[in-house]
Specification:
heterodimer, A: alpha/beta, four-stranded parallel sheet, 17 helices, B: alpha+beta, eight-stranded antiparallel sheet, six-stranded antiparallel sheet, 14 helices, 18 strands, about 20% strand, globular
Chain lengths: ~375, ~500
C-alpha cells in the first residue's frame, strides 16, 4: 500500500465486506479456525470485517480515534489468514489487503498520538528518537567464503535480540559448510518492515529509501533473507512505496539450504531418530508462499521425521508474536499456547520454525523444561550437518 | 423544562441499561456480554452489511450465548425490563435492528448435534454454516439440499429467511423441526421432538405446524436455538444435464415439464449473463465481468443461449440414463437444444466447474459475484404462465436502467414442483451512488405493485402490510400473544406500522 493512502481511499473497498466471517477460517472442508482474534473471541468485531467496519465508522463519524481504537488496531496478530480466504476487499480499488487496511488504521492512530503501552510504545519511542528501529548488524563471514564479487548477497538484518543474533551466527556456520562465495548487505537499521506493520509510517520512507539506495547497486545479485518479515516487506512493499524500485532476485535461506542439499554441498550427519513438527511462519508461508523449501530441508536430514500439525501451510495458525495491543486480554499468549497444544498433539519431539519472532514467542510461553524443544530451522540444520 | 425532562429520561434509560447489563453478566457470564464501544459500533449496521443506505443503529450491548440456557436467561431478563432484543447470526441480515437494544449474536452456537442417516435429518445449532454442515456430511452418504447461499452463511438463516434456495423438486423445505425460546423463557419444539425422547423426523401433526410461523418471521416470534433440517441421500450416480433456450418462456415450459414428471433433483434457469460470470474465480472475473457489464443482457452473442437450464439428475444409473433421454425429449419439445458435457466444457468451462463444485460436494463457497458492487435485486414468485409475462415486464424495466444496473445476477427456478416460479433479477449498481440506488429502490417498489396487481406476483420480502391487511392483523395477534412486550426484533420491518 502506498504510504500516502488515506482511510478515505480504502472506504469503498472496506464497505464491500459481506460480514460472512470468511476471513476467519481456512479452506473447506476442514474449515479450521485461523484468525487468532476470532478464535479467541468469536464476534464480528474481532474479525477482519470488524476492522473494516471500524474504518468505515471512523470515516462516518460514528466513533472517534481514541486509545481503545488504538489498542484494538494493534491487537491483530497480522497473520494474513484473512487475506488468504477473502478475495472481496482486494478486488476493489485501491486493491489492497485487509491487513493493509489494519496497518493504515494503526498509522492513523499513531499520527494522532495514540500508541499502545508496552512493547509498541517502546518501539515507537525508539523510532521517534532515532528515526530508526535497531541498528546495523553485520555477519562475521569467514574469509574463505566472503567475496564482494559473489552473486549471493546475505541480507544481514538488524538483529534486535539474542535469538536473532544466534540465528545469524548459525547462518554463518552453515554458509561456511556450504563453502560457496557470499557477500553481505548490511542495513542502516530497520528495512522498514516493523515500522510498516505497526503504523510508524511517518518515519518509514527515509529508512526504506536509504536501504534501497544501498541495495540497488547490488540488484543483479541474489539476495538471501534470514528473516521472512524483511523479505516480505522488501519484495512486496518496496514496489508500492518506492517509485524507483526494480525487482530483485531473492531467496529465503531455507531455499538456499534446500538447493545446497540437492547439489550435495551440504550433507547431513548420521543422527538418531527424531520427530519434528514444522510451524509455518505467517510471513514466510502466507506472505511469501514458501512452504516446500523448509520441509525439503528437514527431509534432507538423516533420522528426521516430519509430522505435520493439523493446521499447516496456507492453513497454518499464527504463533501470536505480533499482537501488540491489549484489546483482547492474553491474546498473544493464548494463541501461542493453542499452537503449542497443536504441536504437542503430533507427538513430535521438536518444534521447528523459520522465524526468530516465532521462536522467541514459543520459547517465552513454553514451560521451562520444554523450551529446548523449540528450534529454529537454521540452528537445527547447523547441528545436523 | 423539556430539556430537564429529557435529561432525566436519558438517565433512567442509562441506569436501566446498566442494570440489565449487570444482570446479564451475572446470569450467563461476563465474557458473553459486551458493551465496549468498538463492539457496539461494529454491530451498528448489520442490515445489508456496511451499506450506508440503511440506518446506523448502535445497540447498547451484544450478547454471545453459548448454550440454550444463555438464550433463555437473556430473553427473560430483557422481557422483564421490556428491553428490545434482535437475534442475528454470522452474515448480514435482511432487516433492521433496534437502536439501543440488545443484539443476540448466536455465532458461537455452531455445533452439528446429530446427523441421522436413517431418517435423513441433521440437528444443528443456529450458528452452523453451510461450510460446516457440508463438511460434516462428507462420508455419511448424505448431503444437504443445494443452496445458493455462500458457504459461510448459516443454514438456518437461509432456511428461515426463505432465500432463493431451490425447493424445486425433491428437497421441499429445509426445516423439519425448530426449538424456539419465547420472551418469557418458554422453550418448545415445533416438530415431532416435542414428544419426550422422540427424534425430529416429522414436521407436521398431530398439531398445527408452528414451524411455518417462524419462516419469514425474522426472529420476531421467538428465538430459534436448535433446528432439524432435511438431509438427502447421495444417490448411486449423478449427472448435470444442460439445455439451452433462446427465450425464457420456453425455458419455463421445459423446467415445468421436468419437475412435473419428477425428473431432476434440482433445476435452474440461468440467464446468460449469470451463467457466464457466477462461477468464476476472482482473477477470471476481472477479465470477463467488464465485457459482460458493457453488453446488453437481452442480446446474447450468436450461439450463446439466452437461458441455460441446468438439471441435476441423480439416482440409480438406469434411471439417470432414462432421465437424460427424457430431458433431451422435453428440450426438443420446448424448442431447446441439449448441450453436451464436451460442449459446455469447451465453451463455458468455468460454468461447468462451478456446477461440479456445487453438485459434487453440495456446497457453494464462492461469492465473487458479490464483489461487483452493492446488490440490488427484484424477486417475485408467480404461477408459470404469469411468470413468462413478468419476465418480459422486468426485462423491459431493467433495460431502462441501462448499464447503471446491468442485471448480471439473474436466474429463475421452479418451487414446489412447478406450482410457483421464482424470478430473481438484479445487478450491482455503484454502492456510492446513493441517489441512483434510491431511484432503483423506488422503481422496484413500483414494479412490485404492478407485478402484484397485473400478474399476481408475490414478492419474496415484506413490501408493506397494507397489501396483506387481514393476514397482518392475525399475525399481530399471534405476535402479541407470544411477545406481549414486543421485545423481539422490534425493527425487523415485519410490523412496521405499529
Amino acid at each position: 500500500m502506498k504510504l500516502s493512502t488515506t482511510l478515505k481511499d480504502v472506504q469503498a473497498a472496506a464497505a464491500r465486506c459481506l460480514r460472512e466471517a470468511r476471513c476467519t477460517y481456512g479452506a473447506w472442508p476442514e474449515n479450521h479456525p485461523l484468525c487468532p482474534m476470532y478464535w479467541h473471541e468469536p464476534s464480528f468485531t474481532f474479525s477482519g470485517g470488524g476492522y473494516l467496519f471500524i474504518t468505515s465508522a471512523l470515516l462516518d463519524n460514528k466513533i472517534d480515534f481514541n486509545q481503545s481504537i488504538t489498542d484494538f488496531a494493534f491487537s491483530c496478530t497480522g497473520c494474513m489468514a484473512c487475506d488468504s480466504n477473502c478475495n472481496i476487499i482486494r478486488s476493489h480499488e485501491p486493491y489492497v489487503d485487509i491487513l493493509d487496511i489494519i496497518r493504515l488504521l494503526r498509522s492513523e492512530t499513531v499520527k494522532r498520538g495514540f500508541v499502545p503501552e508496552g512493547v509498541a510504545k517502546r518501539m515507537y519511542d525508539e523510532v521517534k528518537k532515532t528515526g530508526d528501529y535497531g541498528q546495523a548488524s553485520s555477519l562475521k563471514l569467514p574469509d574463505q567464503i566472503s567475496s564482494d564479487k559473489a552473486d549471493t548477497v546475505i541480507f544481514a538484518e538488524c538483529s534486535h535480540t539474542r535469538t536473532q543474533k544466534d540465528i545469524s551466527e548459525a547462518t554463518v556456520r552453515l554458509l561456511e559448510k556450504i563453502g560457496s562465495p557470499v557477500s553481505q548487505f548490511t542495513e542502516r537499521g530497520c528495512c522498514g518492515s516493523t515500522l510498516y506493520d505497526f503504523g510508524f509510517w511517518e518515519h518509514l520512507e527515509p529508512l526504506a529509501k536509504a536501504t534501497w539506495e544501498k541495495m540497488k547497486g547490488l540488484k543483479d545479485k541474489t539476495f538471501v533473507f534470514i528473516n521472512p518479515h524483511c523479505q516480505e516487506f522488501i519484495v512486496k512493499r518496496y514496489p508500492e512505496i518506492l517509485p524507483d524500485y526494480t525487482s530483485i532476485n531473492n531467496q529465503h535461506i531455507s531455499q538456499l539450504l534446500a538447493d545446497a542439499f540437492k547439489k550435495g554441498k551440504l550433507k547431513s550427519k548420521k543422527r538418531g531418530k527424531v520427530k519434528v513438527s514444522y510451524h509455518d511462519p505467517c510471513y514466510l508461508g502466507r506472505g511469501l508462499r514458501i512452504y516446500d523449501a523448509p520441509r525439503e530441508v528437514l527431509a534432507s536430514l538423516d533420522g528426521v521425521e516430519l509430522v505435520e500439525m493439523v493446521r499447516n501451510r496456507e492453513n497454518s495458525f499464527c504463533c501470536g508474536a505480533r499482537a501488540l495491543g491489549n484489546y483482547v486480554p492474553n491474546l498473544s499468549e493464548d494463541t501461542t499456547r493453542e499452537r503449542i497444544k497443536e504441536f504437542e498433539a503430533t507427538g513430535a519431539d521438536l518444534l521447528i520454525t523459520a522465524c526468530a519472532y516465532c521462536k522467541e514467542n514459543f520459547q517465552n510461553v513454553m514451560p521451562g523444561k520444554d523450551k529446548v524443544k523449540v528450534n529454529d530451522l537454521i540452528e537445527f540444520v547447523t547441528e545436523h550437518t | 423544562m423539556a430539556t430537564k425532562t429529557m435529561r432525566i429520561e436519558r438517565e433512567i434509560v442509562r441506569s436501566e441499561r446498566e442494570t440489565i447489563f449487570q444482570e446479564l453478566r451475572k446470569a450467563i457470564g461476563a465474557e458473553k456480554v459486551r458493551d465496549d464501544e468498538v463492539t457496539l459500533v461494529t454491530y451498528g449496521r448489520i442490515r445489508h452489511g456496511f451499506d450506508i443506505m440503511w440506518p446506523f443503529r448502535k445497540p447498547s450491548m451484544v450478547v454471545f450465548p453459548e448454550t440454550r440456557e444463555d438464550v433463555v436467561e437473556t430473553l427473560k431478563i430483557a422481557n422483564r425490563h421490556k428491553f428490545p432484543v434482535t437475534s442475528v447470526g454470522t452474515a448480514a441480515i435482511m432487516l433492521g435492528t433496534t437502536e439501543g437494544g440488545i443484539i443476540l449474536d448466536q455465532r458461537r452456537r455452531d455445533k452439528v448435534i446429530e446427523i441421522n442417516t436413517d431418517s435423513g435429518y441433521a440437528v444443528i445449532e443456529p450458528g452452523v454454516s453451510f461450510d460446516k454442515l457440508t463438511s460434516a456430511l462428507r462420508g455419511t452418504g448424505f448431503k444437504c439440499s443445494v443452496g445458493t447461499m455462500p458457504g459461510p452463511g448459516t443454514v438456518l438463516g437461509q432456511a428461515l429467511s426463505r432465500g432463493s434456495q431451490s425447493f424445486s423438486t425433491r428437497y421441499l423445505s429445509l426445516v423439519l423441526d425448530l426449538e424456539v425460546v419465547l420472551p418469557d423463557g418458554t422453550v418448545f419444539s415445533t416438530g415431532s421432538s416435542h414428544f419426550d425422547g422422540v427424534g425430529s423426523h416429522l414436521r407436521y401433526g398431530p398439531y398445527p405446524d408452528l414451524a411455518g410461523l417462524y419462516t419469514c418471521a425474522y426472529g420476531a416470534m421467538g428465538v430459534i436455538t436448535k433446528a432439524a433440517i432435511r438431509i438427502h441421500p447421495v444417490n448411486e450416480v449423478y449427472r448435470i444435464h444442460f439445455a439451452g433456450f433462446d427465450n425464457y418462456s420456453d425455458a419455463v415450459d421445459y423446467v415445468k415439464d421436468l419437475v412435473n414428471n419428477n425428473i431432476p433433483e434440482h433445476t435452474f434457469i440461468w440467464n446468460w449473463h449469470m451463467y457466464l460470470t457466477w462461477p468464476l474465480a476472482p482473477s477470471d472475473m476481472e477479465a470477463v465481468m467488464p465485457q459482460i457489464l458493457e453488453s446488453d443482457f437481452r442480446k446474447p452473442p450468436e450461439g450463446t443461449p439466452y437461458n441455460l437450464v441446468s438439471s441435476f439428475l441423480s439416482g440409480y444409473k438406469e434411471l439417470v440414463d432414462a432421465y437424460e433421454k427424457v430431458c433431451a425429449k422435453v428440450a426438443k419439445k420446448c424448442h431447446g437444444r441439449v448441450l453436451s458435457d464436451e460442449e459446455v466444457e469447451k465453451r463455458f468451462p468455468a460454468t461447468l466447474a462451478g456446477f461440479r463444485q456445487q453438485y459434487g460436494d453440495y456446497s457453494y463457497r464462492e461469492s465473487v459475484h458479490w464483489n461487483k458492487g452493492r446488490f440490488a435485486g427484484w424477486y417475485v414468485f408467480a404461477e408459470p404462465k404469469d411468470m413468462k409475462e413478468i419476465e418480459k415486464f422486468a426485462v423491459n424495466e431493467f433495460s431502462k436502467f441501462g448499464k447503471a444496473i446491468n442485471p448480471v445476477n439473474y436466474y429463475s427456478h421452479p418451487f414446489d414442483f412447478g406450482r410457483s416460479i421464482l424470478l430473481r433479477i438484479g445487478g450491482f449498481p455503484n454502492p456510492d451512488d446513493i441517489e441512483l440506488r434510491k431511484r432503483i429502490s423506488k422503481k422496484f417498489d413500483e414494479m412490485y405493485d404492478v407485478a402484484l396487481k397485473r400478474y399476481g406476483a408475490v414478492p419474496i420480502r415484506p413490501i408493506g402490510s397494507d397489501r396483506a391487511e387481514t393476514y397482518m392483523k392475525v399475525l399481530r395477534s399471534i405476535k402479541k400473544a407470544l411477545d406481549p412486550n414486543n421485545i423481539l426484533n422490534r425493527d425487523s420491518g415485519l410490523f412496521e406500522e405499529e
